[in-house]
Amino acid sequence: MAETDTPFVLKAQDARGVVTLTLNRPQAFNALSEGMLAALQVELDDVAKDGSARVVVLAATGKAFCAGHDLKQMRAEPSLGYYEALFAQCTSVMLSLQRLPVPVIARVQGIATAAGCQLVAMCDLAVAASDARFAVSGVNLGLFCSTPSVALSRNVPRKQAMEMLLTGDFIDAEEARSRGLVNRVAEADGLDAAMEQLVQRIVAKPRVAIAIGKAQFYRQVEAGVESAYEIAGQAMACNMMDEAALEGVQAFIDKRNPAWAAEPGPQA
User: Fold this and answer.
1) How far, in Å, CA of 121 to CA of 119, rounded?
2) Which whole-number Å values give the CA distances from 98 to 94, 119, 120, 172, in the listed order?
3) Any residues with CB less than 8 A from the CB of 204 and at least 6 apart, and which?
4) What pLDDT sits at residue 223?
5) pTM exceeding 0.85
6) For the packed helices 243-254 and 225-241, what is the interaxial angle rounded to 10 degrees?
7) Strands in 42-167 per DSSP E
8) Where are the domains of the chain?
9) Cα-flanking dihedrals φ and ψ of residue 245, to 5°?
10) Fewest beta carbons within 10 Å, which of 27, 88, 98, 130?
11) May I ask the CATH class of domain 3-187+207-221?
């Protein structure tokens, strides 16, 4: 079966109004291709209009939660206009998570890297398996994670966020919890039970109170997020046009070390 024949996002909803959206590209570590982003946008727009929805659980199939953008797809069309449109599409999905009138909980297993880590950070709550790992690792390919930095820096203290962005290093689930990126950590076989504990606490509250509270929460703490995403999206699109990033992504696709040009030395 071709990938295009398989739904990018699976949707389920129980009698309580708990909507589960499951990223469904396990063979690609649930990378955020254009198709995946479009499918996720459709589902989020539907939830926004569904008065019976109470909570959204954002989950994923396979070994990874989300490995970020689809680098093969990005490398196939190296133009500034394409990259600007792609990062604008991603930003729309990220902002839709925040604008939903119901809480969104990330259910994280495996890795959440780059835009996948951004996805976790943009959810209202997150529960991670104890073996989950997180990184904003674009810098390893010559592409600084500018758009993920918008979400990460609104979850994690600045110096800790900057260390992750500058080094591209992974942190484990317990470190992610201590830094504020996730709320709870559970063993893999207890992940669903930990999710259910949060869900039950939320659905027991009035929907209208949750909706009003979530909207005002982000109005008062995220007043500059849209402008930040515009700046970051432009920066990332320009960065992706740089030879170092193009080579870094191509090296990733080719499964080799990048052959970056030597940096100019200091002037005598």
Assistant:
1) 5
2) 7, 11, 11, 25
3) none
4) 62
5) yes
6) 80
7) 55-60, 104-108, 111-113, 125-129, 133-135
8) 3-187+207-221
9) -70, -40
10) 27
11) alpha beta
Enumerate residue ranges in the chain where pLDDT < 70.
Answer: 1-4, 222-223, 262-268
Using the CB atoms, write b or e for 238-261: b if 16+ within 10 Å: ebbeeeebbbbbbbbeeeeebeee
* Tens digits of residue pLDDT in 154-164: 999 999 999 99
Contact 7, 43 (CB under 8 A): no
Q: With contact defined as beta carbons under 8 Å apart, do 146 and 235 qualify?
A: yes
Q: How far is CA 18 from the centre of its chain?
A: 20
Residues in CB range of 29: below 8 A, 6 or more apart: 62, 63, 64, 66, 67, 110, 111
* b (16+ CB within 10 A) / e for 178-202: ebebbbbbbeeeebeebbeebbeeb
What is the CA angle 66-242-81, rounded to 5?
75
